[in-house]
Amino acid sequence: MIPVVSKLPKTPTTIFTVMSALAAEVGAINLSQGFPDYDCAPELTELVYKAMKEGHNQYAQMTGLPALREAIAAKANTLYGADYDQNTDVTVTAGGTQALFTAISAVIQPNDEVIIFEPAYDAYAPTVKLMGGVVRAMELTPPDYRIPWDMVKKLVSVKTRMIILNSPHNPTGTILDENDIKELITIVKNRDIIILSDEVYEHLVFDGKQHLSMALYPELRERSFIAASFGKLFHTTGWKIGYCLAPAYLMQEFRKIHQFNVFSVNTPMQVAAAEYLKDESVYLGLADFFQRKRDNFREGLSQTRFELLPCHGSYFQSVSYSNFSDEKDNELAVRIAKEFGVASIPVSAFYNKGTDHHILRFCFAKKQETLDKAVERLMKIG
């Protein structure tokens, strides 16, 4: 064997892969990985078939089809009053994770410091490290997982190049509020700090609350990459289509990387997405759709021994089990999958140090019968 020096020597196989494989192995209901078990709208797949039959089967423009970029820019303007130029500020990507990877790759140099709030989506830190950056992790704690901005101010240094935010948040279901925005604006003012805002769950905000996108605030928009996902929007996570919004000077650097790690994205699906987005109810009705699922799932879980944590957005419900077990969360997650037939994600996997608060995460983007069956099984935990 040829010796290979790993660029990520301490990075294991992602927990999502591990738990989904375990669910398949033992026949458990998979509430671990974040994907729906129901199909997307039939009219959307019909639009894809139509695009294929009409010959839209070759490379799209590197930046994305003009019609789709125009639809994305119009959507951002309608929702956030943000004047993004489809020609210079919008790029279609192969999913939200590719948008995140490309944004980090475009601007992080060796020894640049990046502030990440944990628990965090597990793609952030490895990408920073691949670019030679230094992760400065700020650990948040349950049940509310609020950002301690006084501590963040102490973490900021002349080497701080980027702050990564995620709202609605995976795995905790928290969202940023106006005080968070106020504190963020204060911190980045007069500093060369770029914001990477992971907003893939932007339309999954509950209880009448508003999604506070970086696009809403000119002083943040001018320094922000915003990553978004059609997989979450259309219930098509397997399509791997997303997009990035950024001011032209940042997008110029983004596209330099994008053209060499993806170049272009699935053409017929872009054609379909552009047409489908003409109906604003596609995204304006999404919050109500998922809130019904959240409410029903929470009602069911309230009959189990788990303690429910707040969930204001995303399609994840976190629960504490500290009142009935002192097992490590990864051990309990495996035991529940094997003995009770429900797969979850141990939230310690979202902490670089494996911090264990005895919290599990369940995905409720499932059919009602799937969730009912899962609750029935979870009620048997003694």
TrEMBL record:
It comes from the Bacteria. Gene3D superfamilies: Aspartate Aminotransferase, domain 1, Type I PLP-dependent aspartate aminotransferase-like (Major domain). Residues 1-23 form the signal peptide. GO terms for cellular component: cytoplasm. Keywords: Aminotransferase, Pyridoxal phosphate, Signal, Transferase. Residues 29-378 form the Aminotransferase class I/classII large domain. This is Methionine aminotransferase. CDD domains: AAT_like. GO terms for molecular function: kynurenine-oxoglutarate transaminase activity; pyridoxal phosphate binding. Its cofactor is pyridoxal 5'-phosphate. Belongs to the class-I pyridoxal-phosphate-dependent aminotransferase family. InterPro entries: Aminotransferase_I/II_large, Kynurenine-oxoglutarate_AT, PyrdxlP-dep_Trfase, PyrdxlP-dep_Trfase_major, PyrdxlP-dep_Trfase_small. NCBIfam families: PRK09082.1 (NF006569), PRK12414.1 (NF009079). The lineage of its organism: Bacteria, Pseudomonadati, Bacteroidota, Sphingobacteriia, Sphingobacteriales.
